Predict the 3D structure of the following.
Amino acid sequence: MPVKEESVRSVERAFSILKRFTLDNAHINLTGLAEAINLPVTTTLRIVTTLVSLGFLKKEENRIYSLGNETYLLGAVARAHFRPQQIAFPYMKDLRDDTKEAVSLYGMEDEFRVCYEHVPSLLTMRCVVRIGDRFPLWAGAGGKALLAYAEHAVVEREAEKLHKITDSTFTDREAFLRELAAIRTQDYAISRGEREDGILSLAIPIFDRDKRASFSLSIAGPSTRFDDDKVAKLIPRMQEMCTRISQQLFLV
């Protein structure tokens, strides 16, 4: 393999290791990292040792690793200059303040929907979501609002993953595909307890210039607080918000 190609491959492997760390999996041993990226332990150790020396990983006891100081500093810079969050946040806060319900901004990363911003509910009974949390694309309004506009191969891949999480989760492939088709027609997605019992969520896609859903804006809370009338009033309001966000973000 040419030196240049090998260098690129090493960079890809290094980032694959860094991306294995999540809020719920912040400490991973060497064997776990090797298995996650499908490499021998010896190869993984060389990459990990380099990342430790650069400050992007921290070595703890018993060959356990966590993200290092340099990763934290890069994350702080990225968050301070992440334009989608800067544009969407004022709208999200206004919506939260008016409804008192939790509002989240989601995007598609790898095979998940990822929370990029979250404004928590002001009420005691609430949906708890953290920035960086990952959820299935195929369960929940925020994921369906992204998946409905994705490429055919992505939709097919996700449709193969359907399985029961709650009694309301889609498990029938054809019914799920009809649901996505309906979302494309109406430009909104609703989930009634698909991922968590008793939770209703409404999500609106945020389109780029090519009519692809780059993000979705979601409001969620206990279904007892979301009657049909409230949902019907929220849909046009949130669609208008998302149109404005899209215009500012993508200059459309």
The longest strand covers residues 213-222.
